[in-house]
C-alpha cells in the first residue's frame, strides 16, 4: 500500500457487470438496504452477453432467418429479401443500447454505485480501481467476482490479422463475407456460421471432434448438420486448422480452404488473470476457473460466479448464482444446487438440452428409458412448415423425468418446461397428464411423455 492512499469503504463490491455481476449487485442492494454496494466494470454495463454475445448474436440470427425464409418460403407467399449488413449492425446496436440502458436504470433505481475502471486486488480486503490516470481504492466486507470469460485464442490464428475474427468481430462485420471459415463447431461456430450462410456467405465449419456440437446428444448435432448441408455449408469434422495461407487456411491433412474471414470459436477462457488474485491468496485452477463452495465462496469474503467458475459458460447460470451469493452475503442459508441447467443453441433447427442425455445416463450407470416424439407427427409443426425435429425425454426407473433433448422450431422455449419438470422431480405421468394447448409445439412434450408412459397417441406404438 502506498503511504497516504485513502480507501473508500463498501459493504459489497461486485466486479464485472454482466448478467452475473449486475444481478448480484441488484439483489445485494435489495437484501441489504442502507449498505453501500459498488459495481465495478471496465467496459460497458451488460458484459459480453448483452454487448457482444447472446443478444447481438440473436438479433443477427433473427435477421438472417428473415432474409433466408423470405426467399425460400413455400406457403405461397413470395417475398424478396435485400440485406444491408451496415443497417443490420446498427439495428443490433440499437437493441443492445435499449437493454443495457434498461439495466443501467435498474442499477440507479436500486442505489447501486457503478464505477468505471479495471479492478485489481491490493490486499485480500482491498481493490485498486484504475480508470485512465485515476486510481481509486476500495475496501469491502464482501466481494463478488463476476469477470466472465473471453474467446479462447489460437496462437496460429491470431485475432487481429485482418482476416481472423472472434465472435465479437463476427458480430461487427459491416459486409457479408464471401467466404467464411469457422474454426470450431460448438455453440458459437454453429450459430454464427448458420447466420452468415443464410445472409449469403459460403461457409465452411472445421471441427476438431467427430461431430458438430460434440458436448450435446449426438442426435442434436446430426439434425443441425443435415440442415447445414441443405444450406450449402461444408462441415469438416476430426480436422484441425493448422494455420493461415495467402488466401485462406490450411488443415491438418494439408487441404487448403479459401477464406475472406476466419472466425475462431473454440471455447472461452475465464478472466481470472489480471485481477491480482495472488494479493488475495487465491490461485485459479489450471483452466483459469476459481474453485467455489456450494455457496460460491472462494474464501471467507471472496465469492465468484459465472464463467469464472466451473460448469457451463452460460448467462443464466451466472444469474442464478448471483441470487445465491446475495442471499449468502445477507446471512440467509443458500447454495447453488440446481437439478439441471438448460442449454440452448439458436442453430437451425434450434436445439436444446437439459439434464441427462442417454449417453450420459449410460456413462453414469443410471437405469433409464427414452422416448423420442418426432415433430413431424405433430400438427403445429406442419402448419408452420417446420416438421423436422423431435422431443426426446429420458426417465429413470422410478419414472422421474431426468433429461430432455430437443431439436426443432421453438425448442429454446420448450426446454423451460422440461427444466421445470426435472427441477420439481416430475414423473412421466405428471407430464403426460399436463394438458398442453392444441395446436402448439409444446404438445410434443406431452406426446413424448405419453410415449414413455407406454401409450403414445400420434405415433405408432
Ligand atoms: P464450445 O465449447 O461450445 O465449442 C468449441 C468447439 O471448438 C468444440 O466443439 C471443440 O471441439 C472445437 N475446437 C476446439 N479447438 C479446436 C481447433 N483447434 N480446431 C477446430 N475445432 C476446435 O465453445 P464456443 O462455441 O466458443 O462457445 C463458448 C461458450 O459460449 C460456450 O461454452 C457456450 O456455453 C457459450 N455460448 C452459449 C450460447 C447459447 O447458450 N446459445 C451460444 C454461444 C455460446
Q: What is the SS-derived class?
A: alpha/beta
Enumerate how many helices there are, as a single number. Answer: 13
Silhouette? globular
* Global Rg: 24 Å
Q: What does the average pLDDT come to?
A: 96
The end-to-end distance, rounded to whole angstroms, is: 74 Å
Counted beta strands: 22
List bound small molecules: nicotinamide-adenine-dinucleotide
Measured by DSSP, the beta-strand proportion falls in 15-25%
Q: Uncertain runs with pLDDT below 50, 5 residues or more?
A: none
Largest sheet: 7 strands, mixed
Helical content (DSSP H or I, runs of 4+): 25-40%
Description:
- It is a single chain.
- With 461 residues, this protein is an alpha/beta fold.
- It contains 13 helices and 22 strands.
- Strands 1, 2, 3, 4, 5, 6 and 17 form a seven-stranded mixed sheet that branches.
- The mean pLDDT is 96.
- Bound molecules: nicotinamide-adenine-dinucleotide.
Amino acid at each position: 500500500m502506498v503511504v497516504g492512499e485513502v480507501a473508500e469503504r463498501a459493504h459489497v463490491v461486485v466486479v464485472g457487470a454482466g448478467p452475473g455481476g449486475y444481478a448480484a449487485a441488484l439483489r445485494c442492494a435489495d437484501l441489504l438496504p442502507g449498505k453501500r454496494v459498488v459495481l465495478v466494470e471496465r467496459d460497458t454495463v451488460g458484459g459480453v452477453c448483452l454487448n457482444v454475445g447472446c443478444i447481438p448474436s440473436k438479433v443477427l440470427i433473427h435477421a438472417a432467418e428473415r432474409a433466408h425464409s423470405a426467399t425460400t418460403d413455400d406457403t405461397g407467399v413470395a417475398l424478396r429479401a435485400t440485406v444491408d449488413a451496415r443497417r443490420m449492425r446498427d439495428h443490433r446496436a440499437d437493441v443492445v443500447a435499449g437493454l443495457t440502458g434498461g439495466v443501467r436504470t435498474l442499477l440507479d433505481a436500486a442505489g447501486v454505485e457503478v464505477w468505471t475502471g479495471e479492478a485489481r486486488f491490493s490486499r485480500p480486503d482491498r481493490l485498486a480501481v484504475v480508470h485512465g490516470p485515476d486510481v481509486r481504492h476500495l475496501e469491502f466486507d464482501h466481494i463478488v467476482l463476476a469477470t466472465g470469460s473471453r474467446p479462447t485464442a489460437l496462437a496460429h490464428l491470431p485475432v487481429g490479422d485482418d482476416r481472423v475474427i472472434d465472435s465479437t468481430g463476427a458480430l461487427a462485420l459491416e459486409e457479408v463475407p464471401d467466404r467464411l471459415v469457422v474454426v470450431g463447431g460448438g455453440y458459437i461456430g454453429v450459430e454464427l456460421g448458420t447466420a452468415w450462410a443464410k445472409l449469403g456467405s459460403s461457409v465452411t465449419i472445421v471441427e476438431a471432434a467427430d461431430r458438430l456440437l460434440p458436448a450435446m446428444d449426438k442426435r442434436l448435432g446430426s439434425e443441425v448438420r443435415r440442415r447445414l448441408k441443405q444450406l450449402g455449408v461444408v462441415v469438416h469434422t476430426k480436422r484441425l486448422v493448422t494455420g493461415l495461407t495467402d488466401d485462406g487456411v490450411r488443415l491438418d491433412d494439408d487441404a487448403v480452404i479459401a477464406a475472406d474471414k476466419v472466425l475462431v470459436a473454440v471455447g472461452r477462457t475465464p478472466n481470472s488473470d489480471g485481477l491480482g488474485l495472488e494479493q488475495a491468496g487465491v490461485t485459479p485452477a489450471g483452466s483459469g476457473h476459481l474453485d467455489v463452495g456450494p455457496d460460491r465462496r472462494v474464501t471467507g469474503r471472496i465469492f465468484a460466479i459465472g464463467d469464472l467458475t466451473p460448469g457451463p459458460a452460460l448467462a443464466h447460470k451466472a444469474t442464478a448464482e448471483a441470487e445465491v451469493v446475495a442471499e449468502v452475503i445477507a446471512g440467509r442459508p443458500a447454495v447453488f444446487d440446481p437439478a439441471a441447467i438448460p442449454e440452448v443453441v439458436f442453430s437451425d433447427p434450434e436445439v436444446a438440452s437439459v439434464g441427462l442425455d442417454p449417453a450420459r445416463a449410460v456413462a453414469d450407470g443410471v437405469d433409464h428409458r427414452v422416448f423420442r416424439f418426432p415433430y413431424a407427427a405433430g400438427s403445429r409443426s406442419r402448419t408452420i412448415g417446420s416438421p423436422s425435429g423431435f422431443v426426446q425425454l429420458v426417465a429413470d426407473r422410478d419414472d422421474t423425468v431426468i433429461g430432455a433433448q430437443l431439436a426443432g422450431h421453438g425448442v429454446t422455449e420448450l426446454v423451460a418446461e422440461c427444466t421445470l419438470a426435472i427441477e420439481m422431480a416430475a414423473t412421466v405421468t405428471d407430464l403426460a397428464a399436463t394438458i398442453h394447448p392444441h395446436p402448439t409445439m409444446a404438445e410434443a412434450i406431452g406426446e413424448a411423455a405419453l410415449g414413455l408412459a407406454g401409450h403414445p397417441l400420434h405415433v405408432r406404438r
